[in-house]
From TrEMBL:
Protein name: ATP-binding cassette domain-containing protein
Membrane-spanning parts: none
GO terms assigned for molecular function: ABC-type amino acid transporter activity; ATP binding; ATP hydrolysis activity
InterPro entries per UniProt: AAA+_ATPase (IPR003593), ABC_ATPase_HisP-typ (IPR030679), ABC_transporter-like_ATP-bd (IPR003439), ABC_transporter-like_CS (IPR017871), MetN_ABC_transporter-like (IPR050086), P-loop_NTPase (IPR027417)
Family: Belongs to the ABC transporter superfamily.
């Protein structure tokens, strides 16, 4: 028997607006992301990239439009045909579908690598310590840090710490991973190992939204590149098109800095 499968987008973003007081930072963002897709967001500083990721991950509330992840509207649920705001529990459940990695790795300094990774699964999501530990050790292998389970963050290089942060974000088994300039705080010689880890995750089919200035990574790993400027998506498409042959003057100006 053959069946036609229609895939639904994992992420749906419609006409999203976000202001901080008088300052409108997101001015109508529309974006659909399919399961397994890797989307790289490029754009100048202040264009709203971080704010956009933070809205997806419940860290900021939007003023207009909607964001849905895995078929559920962020921050709301449907009940008897009406949208109602989620309780703290409901929000925690939705957030479990999303992992986020920041420029600053924010590991807990007083905890070992292993403790950092099992903290959320055990402490927040009620997983058994045994299961969480088994999973954490597999994740450490995946990011190439098996021998560091008992180390403290200060004993690791920046690149290693960021790979632990990636493992920690993966520990809740998210359907979507958000990366906000994950290599921007690293010494240049440590950038490659983190990008290599991210490239592996992309190959393994993880759905990822990556804000980065690493054009090489965008070219190689992205299925789609989005160029944001002044709170809007001004250009979007395959990396070869957007990076290799940008159409919008803003995209051209931005990319010319990297040539
Ligand atoms: P990007 O990540 O592209 O550099 P951001 O999303 O961080 O851009 O910021 C976009 C704009 O929103 C900037 O002008 C920034 O100063 C402003 N902004 C971001 N967060 C806040 C906040 N919490 N309060 C007020 N303004 C903010
Ligand atoms: Mg930013």
């Amino acid at each position: 028997m053959s069946a036609v499968q229609t895939m639904n987008p994992l992420v749906q973003v419609r006409d999203v607006h976000k202001s901080f007081d008088q300052l409108e930072v997101l001015k109508g963002i529309d974006l659909d992301i399919m399961p397994g897709e890797v989307v790289v967001i490029l754009g100048p500083s202040g264009s709203g990239k971080s704010t956009f990721l933070r809205c997806i991950n419940h860290l900021e509330a939007i003023n207009k439009g909607f964001i849905a992840v895995d078929g559920e509207q962020i921050g709301y649920r449907l009940r008897n045909g009406r949208l109602e705001k989620l309780s703290a529990n409901g929000i925690a459940r939705q957030r479990r579908k999303i992992g986020m990695v920041f420029q600053q790795f924010n590991l807990y300094p007083h905890m070992t690598v292993l403790q950092n990774i099992i903290e959320a699964p055990v402490g927040i999501h009620g997983e058994s310590r045994q299961d969480a530990t088994r999973n954490a050790l597999q994740l450490l292998e995946r990011v190439g840090l098996s021998e560091k389970a008992g180390s403290y963050p200060r004993q690791l290089s920046g690149g290693q710490q960021q790979r632990v942060a990636i493992a920690r974000a993966l520990a809740i088994k998210p359907k979507l991973m958000l990366f906000d300039e994950p290599t921007s705080a690293l010494d240049p010689e440590l950038v490659g190992e983190v990008l290599a880890t991210m490239r592996d995750l992309a190959k393994q089919g993880l759905t990822m939204i990556v804000v980065t200035h690493e054009i090489g990574f965008a070219r190689e790993a992205a299925d789609r590149v989005v160029f944001m400027d002044d709170g809007k998506i001004v250009e979007m498409g395959r990396p070869d098109d957007v990076i290799g042959n940008p159409q919008h003057p803003r995209t051209k100006a931005f990319l010319s800095r990297f040539l």
